[in-house]
Amino acid sequence: MTNPSATVVPDERVSARRGRRAAGRRNDGPAGGSRTAGYFFVALYVVLLLALGIAPTVYAIALALSAPGGLGFAHFVNTFNLFEFAPAFEHIFEFEGIWLASQTIFVVILALIVHTLTRRVSTAFRFVFYLPGAMAGAASVVVWLFMFDPNTSPWAFILHAFHYQLLANTAAPGNLPVLFAIMAFFTGAGGWIVIMYGALNNIPQELIEAAEIDGSGAIQTALKIKLPLIRKWIVYMLVLSFAAGSQLFVEPQILGVATVGEVSPQWSPNQLAYNLAFQYDRFNDAAAISVDLLVIGLLVAVLLVWRGKLFEVE
Amino acid sequence: MLARRYALRLIAMIVLLAFAAFFVVPMIWLLLAPTKTDYQIVHESPFAFGSLSQFGHTFHKVITYQGDLMVTWLKNSAIYAFGGTALALLAAIPAGYGLALTQFIGRRALLGITLVVMIMPATALVLPLFLEASAVHLIGTVWSVILPFAFFPFGVYLAYIYFSSSIPRDLLSAARIDGAGEWGVFRHVALPLARPIVALVAFFAFVADWNNYYLPFVMTYDNSQYPVTVGLQILISSSQVFTPTASGSASVEIFRPDLAMATLISILPILIIFMFAQRTLVKGMLAGATKG
Fold it and tell me: Which are the contacts of A178, defined by CB distance < 8 A and separation ≥ 6?
């Protein structure tokens, strides 16, 4: 769900920023080397960026805007009027609401607790939380099919409390946002706990000790000292998770296959776009939905880069 | 005061253990399920251990399912993930170096674009990529999956951070004074120092590529091309466990232990990397701090 590649970024950035500040004093900005050398080093990446980042984006926009008489928003209107369109986005937003709220609360609480443990114990817990990240994607969905099936689940006692007898009961339409939130939390939370832990470790020990000398209890220190100092990583987690969550595909797709018709094949916007393209050959309409999703991702990305001040690269 | 502190500590421990259970139980279940028969999985305790011989039997059944379908899927996953990771490294490491340690027109713009595309989820581009790949007749070839994997802006960013913070510029200048060309400076001075970041980028690229579902799902169209992530869905749809009507074109029926075994096999390479790469990862993570 959440891009596992996000995991160590903050540690990297925090430490790297420090390094850079030190480097900056010695030397302003990148130096050395001729310009041609610079172009040479970035050449392959720029080719890939143009061919696989920019070109498909432009192509999708062109397809989405192409109309019989020239350019227009016909395909956006078409898809907007589909009866699956609004529910697909509602599903996503409901899922995001549940997932982001619970992830934020639990990740922060767990990171704060883990940060108070001895090094060895905290390493063990972080590893346990982080390991499910290895299953991100299809594998975790398959495992959770069994966890949600009252016939096989180690959590059957909880499912029975809701009077669920079959996987299809657990996977009732109203429950799906919660189920997907659980799956996303399972594979994604550990990485974020590691990040928050890294961020907490960057808080100067003297600051925490000073608070304790002043009589601050564990909870007070956590809320008044630690939390404000990791706030920007929490925002970073929220924003990045939101962008990733809007792209939900594999979870409803596989759950749909497993429950045979219980989950709409158009449950998420990405699935809707996929089906428009491959079931109905409506590629322009599919491109319009892709553009909708791209715009959401782009807005979030731009917001984070230019407003979030998380990437003070230079 | 002391009592309150102990109570707090106790609550914290309970919360911690409860979440540890949440994360660990599914993984333990996955390890135990293939040791049991389908009947045992449904009727015995979820944490009961079956037998090693049953585990072996299930492994054999999954590996030989429809000839060597599972092996084909794994091979495809490996081709896509290794190919994608290799190309991603080839592009990202020099690019990170160029962005950090050389000066050229458009450098800042390239850095900004890299940050934006790095944050945008890659899935948003899958359908547009399909249309593009289909326009240039790449659909159904390994390149339709490998090339999109090769574009890995996050790797460029990591390499950029590393080179701009951890490589002493004086060292590079010294090499230049000694008459080394720009490529020579990169190849013989910077690259040997960049091993931790190469490992880190390789780790993230490989894990993301191996676990990717949506891109190969769209780009490939039959069993001979699917990676194991898509293969898992094929197994579920041909299993009578979830789809009672699935007569299964296959002669061998797929039950719960088989699905669990297939899942386990599918994540094995990543699990191994996760367990053994820890030291490299920590090194990579701390690398940026060494010059701080």
Answer: A98
H-state helical runs in chain A: 9-26, 35-49, 55-65, 74-81, 85-115, 119-130, 138-148, 156-161, 167-170, 176-201, 205-213, 218-220, 227-229, 231-245, 250-259, 269-278, 283-302
Q: Would you say B292 and A15 are in contact if contact means Cβ atoms under 8 Å apart?
A: yes
CB A246 within 8 A of CB A100: no
Structure tokens at A289: 């939905």
Q: Sketch the domain layout of chain A as residue ranges.
A: 4-23+83-307
Per-residue H/E/C for B18-80: HHHHHHHHHHHHHHHHHHCCHHHHHHCCCCCCCCHHHHHHHHHHHHCCCCCHHHHHHHHHHHH
DSSP string, A75-137: HHHHHHHSTTHHHHHHHHHHHHHHHHHHHHHHHHHHHHHHHTS-HHHHHHHHHHHHGGGGGTT
Question: Which residues in chain A are contacts of B147 at CB distance < 8 A?
Answer: 48, 51-52
Given pLDDT bands bounded at 50, 70 and 90, which one contains residue A34? low
Which chain B residues are closer than 8 Å to A49 by Cβ? Answer: 113-114, 117, 151, 153
Do residues A184 and A191 lie in contact, with contact meaning Cβ atoms separated by under 8 Å?
A: no
Tell me chain A's radius of gyration from C-alpha atoms: 23
Rounded Cα–Cα distance for residues B263 and A128 (Å): 19
Please identify among residues 116-135 of chain A the ones whose CB lies closer than 8 Å to any CB of chain B.
116, 125, 127-135
A228-259 pLDDT tens trace: 888 878 888 888 898 889 989 999 999 998 88
Interface residue A295 vs chain B (CB under 8 A): no
C-alpha separations of A65 from A60, A74, A281, B97, B127 in Å? 9, 7, 17, 38, 16
Q: Residue A217 region, left (φ>0) first, then alpha (ψ -120 to 50), else beta?
A: beta
Cβ contact (<8 Å) for B125 and A294?
yes
The answer to whether the CB of B31 falls within 8 A of the CB of B264 is yes
Q: Does residue A280 sit at the B interface (CB-CB below 8 Å)? A: no
What would the two tokens of residue A102 be?
Answer: 């619970």
Residues of B in contact with A5 (CB under 8 A): 154, 204-205, 207-208
Q: Which amino acid is at A260?
A: V
pLDDT tens-digit series, residues A264-298: 999 999 999 999 999 999 989 999 999 999 898 88
- For β-strands A66-67 and A70-71, DSSP reports them as antiparallel
CATH 1.10.3720.10 applies to domain B57-292: yes
**pLDDT at residue A163 tops 70:** yes
Measured at the CA of A93, the angle between CA A107 and CA A248, to 5 degrees, comes to 75
Domain residue extents for chain B: 1-50, 57-292
Cα end-to-end span (Å), chain A: 30
Q: Is A265 on the interface with B (CB under 8 A)?
A: no
Instruction: Return residues 185-224 of A near B (CB < 8 Å).
Output: 186, 190, 198, 217-219
Domain A4-23+83-307 of CATH type 2.60.120.650: no
Neighbouring residues of B244: CB distance < 8 A, sequence distance ≥ 6: none
- The shortest C-alpha distance from A18 to chain B (Å) reads 5
Closest CA to B267 of B214, B231, B223: B231
Q: Is the separation of the CB atoms in A237 and A1 below 8 Å?
A: no
> If you average pLDDT over residues A94-112, what whole number do you get?
96
